[in-house]
Design a protein that fits this description.
Layout lengths: L44 E9 L5 E10 L4 E5 L6 H9 L4 E8 L2 E2 L5 H7 L1 E4 L11 H8 L8 H10 L1 H5 L10 H13 L5 E5 L7 H16 L4 E4 L3 H6 L3 E6 L2 E6 L1 H6 L1 H7 L3
Parallel strand pairs: 3-8, 3-9, 6-7, 7-8
Antiparallel strand pairs: 1-2, 1-4, 4-5, 9-10
The chain binds adenosine-5'-triphosphate (ATP) and magnesium ion.
The site of magnesium ion has 4 residues, from helix 1.
Amino acid sequence: MSDPYSDRGNKDLSLGNAKGMGMGMGNEMPRASGKSHAAPGGPFLIGENMTAGYGNGPDILHDCTIAVDRGEIAVIVGPNGAGKSTGMKAVFGMLDMRKGHVRLDGEDITALSPQDRVSKGMGFVPQNANIFTSMTVEENLEMGAFIRRDDFSDTMAQVYDLFPILKEKRLQAAGELSGGQRQQVAVGRALMTQPKVLMLDEPTAGVSPIVMDELFDRIIEVARTGIPILMVEQNARQALEIADQGYVLVQGANAYSGTGKDLLNDPDVRKSFLGG
Ligand SMILES: Nc1ncnc2c1ncn2[C@@H]1O[C@H](COP(=O)(O)OP(=O)(O)OP(=O)(O)O)[C@@H](O)[C@H]1O
Ligand SMILES: [Mg+2]
């Protein structure tokens, strides 16, 4: 058996455990094995054949499927308004699903509230309003740990190891930070629950190319600790370069999917979505 993380090296941050299960929440039984018992072959997290819209409004998602496997990074790209954020919100339980299912580690969680999904091990960084600007960096991280009743100081130390600038600025209001630093706060906040899977909606929005590269490096580092990552990205080419699996969404439906490499090499995808 090959190590699924070996192609990214093996720097251990122990944000999750090395087997891809995270360290688990305080209220959970430890598991004997890092592999899913319920669906050994299936993806770790999947929103399958999702049809959903807002309130009583029209369907925005049409039979849309997005998923991430253990140890992998999956990237969703597509034009503005394609439904990428709606797809993420549907997977996180923020919309009523009209058709389809969400499964986490083989378990059907379609009916669970977002908070219950967090308890199950999902971390989500939304596209907008993903930090508390008037609170300090450290207070933001503490808020992230809202669901934990155990001592989370080790996790906070791990987040500071991952994002050293946050430690330096821990007593500053998060709203005073740069765009890239705010995104680090948002990702750090989500990591405070020790998620088993992390969902990021445009983590590099509005940052310079250099900061984008740094954020991608940190995201790869998180994935290496065994936390699969499902993310939406506007920087499609760069994101697909680090993607094990990629999805192109158009008008709420899957237009193309494949490995990041497949999509980067697909002439139609290149022409329509990657600027040639
Ligand atoms: N809260 C909402 N209520 C009603 N309609 C919404 C809501 N949020 C998004 N929509 C609609 O859903 C469709 C998809 O929007 P969504 O935000 O999911 O696209 P996106 O692919 O994330 O776009 P972007 O690249 O701009 O972030 C759009 O037509 C949008 O107007
Ligand atoms: Mg969006």
